[in-house]
Amino acid sequence: MPLLSSLARIAIRSIPGLLPALVLAGSLANPARAGDTAEAEIYGFSSHGDFFAFEQYGTQDGSGFPYSEIFVLDVIGDTWVKPSPFRRLDEVDETNGYDEEQVLNETRERNQEAAGSLLQDKGIFGKGKTVAFNPPTELTANPYKMVVAPRLPLVSGETSIELTLTEYPLKNSECAGYDVNTKGFRLTMVNNGVTRTLNDDTSVPDSRRCPFAYRIERFFTYYPDQAPPVFAILIQMESLGFEGPDRRYLAITGRL
Fold first, then answer.
1. What pTM value is reported for the model?
2. Tens digits of per-residue pLDDT, 50-92?
3. Strand order in the sheet with 129-133
4. Nearest to 13 by CA among 76, 62, 46
């Protein structure tokens, strides 16, 4: 049984050194072709809201190998807590066939064991709630805007929170060589009449693997008893994949 099987699911992946091989697949950034979409498991916040953790996992397009990535973040600094992220990709011998679900579960269990000490040290206990969810299958939703009640029941004087994402062209020289028009994004939050810029890209990190689309996917909040409330936002990103666009996640955290 997975170490953290009682917590809800999420996913993220980055496979260094894969891009040259991807070019052989042809027009890889065409959204009409199949890629792979990571699943996500939210491990939640620590008891005081100082740390947040999640996992992204799935089966890699092209190779069919199972992968798992676990991220632990310093909420206020909005940075990874070392030695996070924990990334695992297991090669599978397909000679006699295999049970895809079983090998993925085994990969996740091994990665959860690797991350277990850090998760325990930072006190990740599944605190917090999902207050908004906008999957790509929800075709009527606006991928660039969320207006959210931060908790229920609303406390007197509290207002809704508005998130707005804006994409813009942002060139990456390596990705341009693969004929991918990469993009960055700006994310703003309006809370109690105050507008904050949570992200404003000036370059495209290599870890995003040639991204060309973003959407606001999930919004989490947590109201500790003896600390200020905190949030985590998952941004779903489409990037260069082997058989088509791959969907992965970015997390942005902070205090409300």
1. 0.84
2. 999 999 999 988 788 999 999 999 999 999 999 999 999 999 8
3. 129-133, 211-222, 230-239, 246-255
4. 62
Assign 117 to helix, strand or coil. helix
Kindly report each contact of residues 100-104 with a partner whose C-beta sits within 8 Å and lies 24 or more positions away, as own/partner.
100/59, 100/64, 100/66, 103/66, 104/57, 104/58, 104/59, 104/66
Contact 80, 45 (CB under 8 A): no
Q: Tell me the residue ranges of DSSP E strands in 81-193.
A: 86-89, 124-127, 129-133, 145-148, 161-169, 183-191
Q: Which residues, 6 or more positions from 223, have their beta carbon under 8 angstroms from its beta carbon?
A: 151, 229
Strand 246-255 relative to strand 211-222, pairing: unpaired
CA angle (189, 193, 194) in 5-degree steps: 55
Do the Cβ atoms of 238 and 143 come closer than 8 Å?
no
CA distance 237 to 37: 10
